[in-house]
């Protein structure tokens, strides 16, 4: 018996008592899927989806603004960054809804507090103990499988619902005897026992496709583990490197090339399931409207978010555009938030999973309980 | 009498397997280290070497660009190192090699290698010290402060420098005043480069005005000022405003690194390459108001005065006390212990041995009922110490810690690595430790008996279940691996 088949046996055997109900439910109820891609470090929405039609843009971004000219024009106002070729194709196919001037309730400029608000869904940092994605799992009647594509579970998925985590490793496999004995050793440890069972289940599903570490490989891996009747219904991918204080042009181009490749690989990997899938790409806050003196941008406020997937009512930009005139900026320096990210998430997930968006907002964001959006974000 | 093994796990780096436990008192063992200084390490890279390597790298990169105009993607990911544990967005082709590697001229590849060699030499020194130190508590403090004042070798500018912040700003200042530690860190080229301070220019400075008249765009970068307030001193949400951040950034202009600044300013900076320099021509003239206090024009001294005030601010005392208590006692630090450490900080105006004494005196730190989950670095060092393993080549340890999710001196943000179990006790992270434990156990060979070793490194913490599991292992190596991944050894 090789390692992988051992793990398969181990997961179904050892964990059967605890996990049988979940496994039974896994194939039932919803075939809808949701993936959250977090951009840690405050991604610059004004470069990602450039407001090229705004008369203030060129003067705020004398160096950084130039590249927008070669991007893909979405409408009279907005141009997608040229590195986002696949996102542009999804937009053309009406499978991408691009959202601008959007922000969480957080209004200061600390990454760590901002990410905490984005992930816990509280009104203030550290107000909520668990993450809104974990609460999402608990609102769903069939107790769907959820997975973080990372060695440890990120805050958005932390909470009382069980969550698996998986990321490919280059370490040599441990022997099968050791794996069994470790499972026995952890059986009575309240912290380690459940973690171990989750790990075995995730590894079983990853199979042998879990090699390669590039962006496209990460997208393909996520698709592999969320595909088909037994696939996880909820997933999260962490990306970092968006904090572009200097030399933003090249770094952001590289970041976006990777993001674009990952999203395309995920779409392609899901195949038929793409039509039942919603992807959210979001960041903790945006960057200053002005470029700074070192070819970058400092911490700001509103940014962009993307909704992607076969069921998304896409093909356009959703924004209540505040404008870039000096008087229109937030605190005279940042893009002003005019759209509530909590409301966007609750509305999209409510529509996607066939639940009342107002109830979804109450369950996921009880601290802010934002009024849902009226727009149709996800079809059928 | 407090248990020596307990102290070695809680306040040190874990006992070495061959150490006689002896009748020594644990608390006395920790406190005896406070009057000492860390010995200088052998064969560590110097700032001059790091500067030389960075300058050479930049020159090669410029040549490479001139010879073969690069696409924007090529330029960008040239600044990134190997994939971090969270996903790097740098694109990779199917074979896993970075796309542009084939096109990289050999001189540029060599310059990158030189930078990486400096990083590996620094890692080597850190591991060697951690495995053999006579003062493990002070080593722990070096690791703690290096994470508090995190710089990351995640871009080529800081690869050669990242380790030097710990080696030459933190290690010599562990048992002095917090103010001296803070000043040494904020003057260090690694910090000035990592948080973009080296390039920040006052808009009304000589250089700023000159650049503006030529239509060149240079100016302020507020990254370092913000992180000093948020991470290094007061802590986030402690009452400073965006205006305070910007004013502090203005006060800091002129703090830069000699010899490796860019553009026309470079020749105007005096000092030897790679050292701190105050460049008057970059400094924003005038009086600054920060946290309600006015700071008169005093060149380099202006920002220094701000730092000295921050170093003894009550919010700083609180912030440091919480972080120390979280690191040594519990994820949710007991408020009484935090308060005593905070008081010690305030009363002594940041005298670090006084602060450490308050931590060591906290009864909460000696309770065995809520152990901390060891992070990957702590667990790796404790494992190698327990098994008496010699330091492997730095490259191997670097690879291992990448896999375990905590690459040396490469946190993904200036906040450093997280210090709570939820960040490290992940399902997949646990499997990786089991895999790594298997590797350690094989390296230790057949000569070590886990049944005898377990009580020597775990003491009273060793549970019957773990002892039984070890005694029933099918081989000595499996027994050792089980010891390393046992619930008791994973915690300290």
UniProtKB/TrEMBL annotation, chain A:
Lineage top rank: taxon: Bacteria
Signal peptide: 1-26
Keywords recorded for this protein, A-Z: Signal
Name recorded for this polypeptide: DUF1501 domain-containing protein
Organism: Sphingomonas swuensis
Lineage: Bacteria, Pseudomonadati, Pseudomonadota, Alphaproteobacteria, Sphingomonadales
From TrEMBL, chain B:
Disordered, as annotated region: 60-110
Protein name per UniProt: DUF1800 family protein
The organism of origin for this protein: Sphingomonas swuensis
Highest taxon above the source species: Bacteria
A Pfam family per the record: DUF1800
UniProt feature, compositional bias: Low complexity: 80-109
Listed InterPro entries: DUF1800 (IPR014917)
């Amino acid at each position: 018996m090789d390692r992988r088949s051992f793990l398969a046996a181990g997961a179904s055997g050892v964990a059967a008592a605890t996990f049988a109900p979940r496994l039974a439910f896994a194939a039932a109820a919803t075939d809808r899927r949701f993936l959250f891609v977090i951009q840690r470090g405050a991604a610059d929405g004004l470069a990602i989806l450039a407001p090229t039609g705004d008369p203030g843009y060129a003067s705020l971004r004398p160096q950084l603004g130039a590249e927008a000219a070669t991007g893909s024009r979405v409408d009279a106002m907005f141009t997608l960054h040229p590195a986002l070729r696949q996102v542009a194709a999804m937009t053309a196919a009406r499978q991408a809804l691009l959202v601008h001037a959007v922000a969480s309730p957080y209004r200061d400029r600390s990454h760590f507090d901002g990410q905490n608000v984005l992930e816990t869904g509280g009104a203030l940092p550290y107000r909520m103990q668990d993450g809104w994605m974990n609460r999402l799992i608990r609102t769903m009647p069939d107790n769907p499988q959820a997975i973080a594509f990372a060695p440890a579970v990120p805050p958005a998925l932390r909470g009382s619902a069980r969550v698996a985590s998986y990321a490919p490793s280059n370490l040599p496999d441990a022997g099968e005897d050791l794996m069994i004995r470790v499972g026995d050793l952890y059986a009575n440890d309240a912290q380690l026992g459940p973690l171990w069972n989750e790990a075995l289940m995730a590894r079983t599903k990853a199979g042998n496709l879990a090699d390669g570490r590039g962006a496209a490989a990460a997208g393909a891996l996520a698709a592999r583990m969320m595909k088909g009747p037994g696939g996880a219904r909820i997933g999260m991918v962490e990306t970092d490197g968006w904090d572009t204080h200097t030399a933003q042009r090249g770094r952001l181009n590289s970041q976006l090339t990777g993001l674009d490749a990952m999203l395309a690989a995920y779409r392609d990997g899901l195949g038929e399931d793409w039509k039942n899938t919603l992807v959210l790409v979001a960041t903790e806050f945006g960057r200053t409207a002005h470029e700074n003196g070192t070819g970058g941008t400092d911490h700001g406020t509103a940014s962009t978010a993307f909704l992607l997937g076969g069921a998304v009512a896409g093909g356009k930009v959703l924004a209540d555009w505040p404008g870039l005139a000096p008087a229109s900026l937030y605190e005279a320096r940042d893009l002003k938030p005019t759209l509530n990210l909590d409301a966007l998430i609750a509305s999209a997930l409510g529509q996607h999973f066939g639940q009342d968006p107002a109830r979804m907002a109450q369950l996921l964001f009880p601290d802010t309980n934002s009024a849902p959006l009226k727009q149709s974000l996800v079809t059928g | 009498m407090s248990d020596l093994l307990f102290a070695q796990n809680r306040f040190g780096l874990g006992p070495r397997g061959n150490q006689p436990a002896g009748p020594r008192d644990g608390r006395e063992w920790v406190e005896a280290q406070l009057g000492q200084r860390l010995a200088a390490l052998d064969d560590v890279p110097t700032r001059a070497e790091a500067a030389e390597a960075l300058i050479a790298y930049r020159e090669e990169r410029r040549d490479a660009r001139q010879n073969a105009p690069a696409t924007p993607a090529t330029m960008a990911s040239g600044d990134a190192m190997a994939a971090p544990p969270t996903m790097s967005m740098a694109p990779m082709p199917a074979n896993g090699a970075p796309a542009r590697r084939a096109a990289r001229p050999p001189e540029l590849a060599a310059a990158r290698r030189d930078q990486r060699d400096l990083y590996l030499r620094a890692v080597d020194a850190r591991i060697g010290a951690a495995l053999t130190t006579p003062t493990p508590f002070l080593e722990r403090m070096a690791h703690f402060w290096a994470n508090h004042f995190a710089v990351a070798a995640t871009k080529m500018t800081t690869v050669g420098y990242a380790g030097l912040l710990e080696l030459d700003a933190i290690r010599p200042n562990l048992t002095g005043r917090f103010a001296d530690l803070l000043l040494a860190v904020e003057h260090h080229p690694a910090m000035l480069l990592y948080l973009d301070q080296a390039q920040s220019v006052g808009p009304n400075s000589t250089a700023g005005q000159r650049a503006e008249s030529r239509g060149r765009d240079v100016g302020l970068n507020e990254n370092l000022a913000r992180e000093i307030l948020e991470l290094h001193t007061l802590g986030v949400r402690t009452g400073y405003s965006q205006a305070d951040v910007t004013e502090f950034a203005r006060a800091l202009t002129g703090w830069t690194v000699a010899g490796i600044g860019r553009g026309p300013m470079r020749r105007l900076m005096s000092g030897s390459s790679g050292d701190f320099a105050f460049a008057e021509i970059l400094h924003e003239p005038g009086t600054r108001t920060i946290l309600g206090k006015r700071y008169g024009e005093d060149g380099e001294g202006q920002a220094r005065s701000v730092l000295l005030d921050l170093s003894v601010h009550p919010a700083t005392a609180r912030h440091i006390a919480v972080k120390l208590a979280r690191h040594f006692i519990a994820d949710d630090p007991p408020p009484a212990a935090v308060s005593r450490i905070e008081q010690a900080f305030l009363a002594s105006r940041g005298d670090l041995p006084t602060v450490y004494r308050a931590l060591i005196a906290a009864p909460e730190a000696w309770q065995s009922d809520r152990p901390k989950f060891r992070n990957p670095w702590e667990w790796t060092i404790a494992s190698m110490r327990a098994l008496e393993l010699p330091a492997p080549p730095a490259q191997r340890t670097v690879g291992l810690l990448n896999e375990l999710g905590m690459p040396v001196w490469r946190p993904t943000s200036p906040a450093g690595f997280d210090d709570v179990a939820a960040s490290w006790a992940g399902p997949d992270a646990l499997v990786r430790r089991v895999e790594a434990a298997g590797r350690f156990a094989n390296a230790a060979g057949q000569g070590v008996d886990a049944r005898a070793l377990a009580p020597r490194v775990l003491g009273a913490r060793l549970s019957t279940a773990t002892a039984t599991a070890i005694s029933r292992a099918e081989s000595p190596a499996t027994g050792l691996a089980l010891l390393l991944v046992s619930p008791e050894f994973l915690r300290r």
